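Following the same procedure, backbone shapes were mapped to integers, yielding the entry below.
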Amino acid sequence: MNSTANMTQNEVLRVKLEVLRGEHRDLDDAIKALEERARPDQLTLRRLKKKKLQMKDRIAAIEDQLTPDIIA
């Protein structure tokens, strides 16, 4: 049986969120390492930063799905 079949949608979203956060940290480390070079590749640096920003947006979207709406 598929293990995701037994998981609720929120559990799946939480797992995805943790994976994305890990990838986001890895991208941050890669960007820092590239910036520390004497002559960093600017194109690669821009691409990594853009990917990191897109990942941040995906993380925020999942966090919004997991946060219940509060009616004031």
Summary: The helical segments are 9-35, 42-66.
